Amino acid sequence: MIVVSWNCQGLGQALTKRTLKDLCYKLRPSIVFLMETKQRTWVLERLRRQLGFFGGEYVEPDGRSGGLAIWWEEGMDIHFFEKTKFFIDGVCREKQQDTWHFTFVHGPSRRAERPSFWREFTRIHRSQVIPWLVLGDLNLLTSSGDCQHAGSSNSFFLLNELMAQGHLVDLGFKGSPYTWTNGREGDANVQRRLDRALANSAWQNLFPSTQVLHELRLGSDHCPLVLSTDAIPKPKGKRFRYEMQWELQDGFTEVIQQGWHKVTSGSSLFQLAKKLQSCKQTLKDWSKQHRSHKSSDVQFLLNELALLQQQPMDANNSRKQREIIQHIDKIWSEDEAYWFQRSRVNWLKFGDRNSSFFHAIASRRRSRNHIVKLKDDMGRWLQQPADIEQHIFHTFQNLYSEHNASNYTDILNLIQPTVTDEMNSKLCATVTMKEVEQATFQLGAFKSPGPDGFPGVFYHRNWNLVRTHIFTAISHFFEHGYMFKELNCTNIVLVPIVKNPEMISQYRPISLCNFSYKIIAKILANRLKGLLDCLISPLQSAFVPGRMIQDNILVAHEAFHSLKLRRNKGCPYMAVKLDIRKAYDSVRWSFLQDVLRAFGFCERWVQWIMQCVTTVSYSLIVNGKSMPLFYPKRGLRQGDPLLPYLYLFVSNVLSRMFNEAERQRYISGFQIKRGCPKISHLLFADDTLVFGKATYQEAAQILEILRQYAVASGQQVNFSKSAIIFSNNTPFCRRTEICAQFAIRSDSSVSKLQGWKRALLSQAGREVLIKAVVLAMPSYAMACFKFPVRICSLINKEIRAFWWGQQEQEKRISWIPWTKMVTSKWHGGLGFKDLECFDLALLARQAWRLINHPNALWAQVLKAIHFPDVDFVNAQEGSNPSWAWKSLLKGRNLLQHGLGWNIGSGESVNVWSDAWVPMLPSFRILSPAPPDKENLKLHVILLCGITLRVGISLLKLLTLLLPLFPWPHSHLLLGLQPFGRAFGS
Fold first, then answer.
1. For the Reverse transcriptase domain, which residue ranges apply (predicted)?
2. Which of 13, 365, 377, 395 is deepest in the core (most CB within 10 A)?
3. In this predicted structure, what is the pLDDT of residue 959?
4. How do the domains of the chain map onto residue ranges?
5. Which residues, listed in sequence order, are joined to residue 810 by a DSSP beta bridge?
6. Which uninterrupted H or E stretch holds 442?
7. Dist. CA 729–CA 744, nearest whole Å
8. CB neighbourhood size of 932 (10 A)
């Protein structure tokens, strides 16, 4: 079924009529909805007959404006409930299919008319229990992304509130991002997305393959919307995938054993591949004989149960009811397992009867990832499946092709061998069963499978059956150092990076590796990650155990704050933020191999790594269809457990190049304050921030380093996504000159809580969504910055509305206050996080890390800037503090409530003012100090010539303490444990 919606701005013009006729002849739509017709009924009826539609319904225009029309083809059974000048409401049924509700809308453009319109619209959605589609020009926006220039935040609220209350979700679109323009030129041009399609979950379940296209704008200032319910055809030759629901079938274990125990010969890796292949074929044959249950099966059983419950209850009746109930529960469990596996929801546990939610998630993902149109390199739209597939295939074939590399020996000479013989010995140790098992269960059970179709859950659930053969095959790889290529086949799926992608560059290629390969890669990754802190530059804060990406964020924030404070005095500085184009996909294999050798890794380790990297073959999955295999010549796979760690060694070379340039004074770096370490660059995984003087010479040096690095490694900088930030004392002409030199520009969680999720999730499911997803979203920022109270209150408000939101047709009552909900479950609450308290807790954690890691780069920078002469516990805010520093002090203040001395010798601890008594809530002595004992140190009491490591008797301790302390507190000291020893009983 195809539905066309168009605000045609009057059907009097010849071009508008021709555009409409072309659309109808080309698409053969089932329904056409027209707005702003500005024509009488008899004119529209004549046009309808010319276009060959079976029926029509109209709303007359109001003078020279307005007017609605709806046409439909034969076979569409349509009944109307209500017609106004703003909408046409009714139900539709096509060829004996399920009935669905439609509301075709032309929202008022004048604000004065909106309240009455939305009241009428709210009345409609309150009665919706069947599939419901809302389509048309709503004349409202959902976010600033819907307009070229900032829109009204009030209009955002209106439409978002309507969608939440009606449990509606935006069906998205393909094509141009805006549907309306004012037609003006230059800065006066305004474009907005006013037309859209909304639907509830029942409509999405009825039509899971729906796509919405924005057609070309012609004959009106609005572009037509084309909604197609059959836009995603079922792919031919369905790929095998292990199904969780099979595990609920009787006799399934025997089927697995039958397939696995078939005798094979050859190397261990070859035998593993053949056993998986045998299991696949056995499961395929078995699944054909055990069809999946349908909803009609459940309905039949429910009818049977209803009849039995109306009959007298005897033993036979009771037995039949139990059997039917067990059968229904089994069918529902199978259905939930099926959709859970496809939903990719890793924060919600299977078994909570959230089948409708899992179904909606899977359907939306399939619709979002389906590619119906795409721009080629020349900007032309491709819509034919064959053209799209060919364009994607050639793009990725070129992306992974090797280009000639020049000699980069000088760059490799910058790497000093840092891997010791002891490290190499640990890396190349004999693999053990414990190591294999640990790696297997560290990998996600429900991640998408590779080409063999077996996800982690197959290995986890059948580990006792497969463990011996898996261990033997993996041991064979580590002994002989060669990968069986069939195990290293990889599917590539394309995931949109932006909301509505137009070009192939707006998709991220995700590699789906075989789980058997991922076990090998995970073992190698586990061995390597423990050494990274010794091998990787401290200027890299990502992927290294013990480091956090927030560390470098804090340093960068302090640098930007200093750049902002620089006025007329001193030398101007700049910070260049670099974005690497296709960073992981463009790594040159020969360069990676040479870098690993330069670091000092032994040949055996290098061979293992390069076998994992170079024996790969790719098959692109485009709209569910597998493309022919091709063999890449470069690139690291996103989805490979080794990826982040291998990329660290590649990017570490760039770090060494900048360090060498700074040592030779080609670039100067940036010293935020006297005594502070000079910083030439910071690394954030594949992003780089470079600091230097804002001069033409240093800009040229940075460019030359980037050029040499690109030639050697394949890592090209994407200057269109890079940016430069200048200090305030940089002259404007110099900024312009440097920006031109780089050819880049100069810079100076609520969406997760949508109404459809509220409607589909159980109460327990909503709790997990709030805790695992929504409250985790701001964690990165909160670890560095204190959020304004207003922002925390707004997010808390949205969470409360989501939790107590509408269920079915009733609005739920807030039975307990929010203050109770944020208390722990042990104290009768729900364990939600109050964002303001959560923010302070994260800042306190960062403050604690600052105390415990004083030699880290970020700690040295903060100390030099803010507390050079004191420790962090006694640091003050100072003048012109940064937001991050003020935030850390708030975390420090919270931390101080729980800080106490861990007693050693006691020489630094003041008996009266310091926190050192662990049995007291405040850790401090509450009694006032005697007049002559204000500065008494703890070691005077504890030592008295006796060595604590040998111990001290309880009687001796009491003899020393009782004369000094008031009696009510003396007994509290018995819990003190110097050097971890108790005092006795």
1. 476-761
2. 395
3. 55
4. 2-228, 244-368, 540-581+635-748, 772-899, 906-985
5. 807
6. helix 433-442
7. 20
8. 7
Count of Cβ atoms closer than 10 Å to residue 302 Cβ: 12
The separation between CA 966 and the C-alpha centre of its own chain, rounded to angstroms, equals: 58
Please state whether beta strands 489-496 and 617-622 pair in parallel, antiparallel, or not at all (unpaired): parallel
Q: What is the pLDDT of residues 827-858, one digit of tens each?
A: 777 777 788 888 899 999 999 999 989 999 99
Average pLDDT over residues 633-652: 94
Longest dimension (CA), the chain: 112
Burial 670-680 (b: 16+ CB within 10 A, else e): bbbeeebeebb
Q: Length of the chain in residues, anyone?
A: 985
Q: What share of residues in the chain are helix, strand, coil (percent, to 5)? A: 45, 15, 40
- Residues paired with 802 in a beta bridge: none
Task: Give the residue from 181, 271, 225, 286 showing the smallest Cα distance to 32.
Answer: 225
CATH fold of 540-581+635-748 reads: Alpha-Beta Plaits (3.30.70)
**What are the Cα distances from residue 832, in Å, to 498, 811, 828, 838, 894?**
31, 21, 12, 10, 20
Q: DSSP assignment of 294-319, as one string?
A: -HHHHHHHHHHHHHHHTS---HHHHH
As a whole-number percent, the residues of the chain with pLDDT over 90 amount to: 37
Q: Residue 174: CA atoms inside 13 Å, Cβ hemisphere, count?
A: 22
The rounded radius of gyration (Å) of the Cα atoms in the chain is 34
Q: What is the topology classification, in CATH, of domain 2-228?
A: Deoxyribonuclease I; Chain A (3.60.10)
Min mean pLDDT across 13-27, 163-177, 286-300, 937-951 is at 937-951
User: In degrees rounded to 5, what are phi and psi of residue 195?
Assistant: -100, 135
d(CA 222, CA 182): 9
Residue predicted with more confidence, 631 or 246? 631
- Helix H or strand E encompassing 3: strand 2-7
CB-based contact 155:141 (threshold 8 Å): yes
Are both 2-228 and 540-581+635-748 of the same fold? Answer: no
Residue-level pLDDT at 952: 40
Q: What is the pLDDT of residues 289-318, one digit of tens each?
A: 766 655 556 777 777 777 777 777 788 888
What's the CA gap between 196 and 139, in Å, rounded? 10
**DSSP-assigned states of every residue in 61-87:** -BTTB--EEEEE-TTEEEEEEEE-SSE
- Three-state DSSP string of 361-404: HHHHHHHHHCCCCEECCCCCEECCHHHHHHHHHHHHHHHCCCCC
Reading the block at residue 558, the tokens are 């302090």
- Convert 521-556 to b/e letters by CB count within 10 Å (16 or more is b): bbbbbebbbebbeebbbbbbbbbbeebbbbbbbbbb
The DSSP code sequence of 180-247 is: EE----GGG--EE--EEEEEEHHHHHHSTT-EEEEPPP-SSSBPPEEEETT-SPPPSSPPP---GGGG
**Position 218 pLDDT exceeds 90:** no
CB 632 within 8 A of CB 623: no
For residue 239, how far is the Cα from the chain centroid? Answer: 27
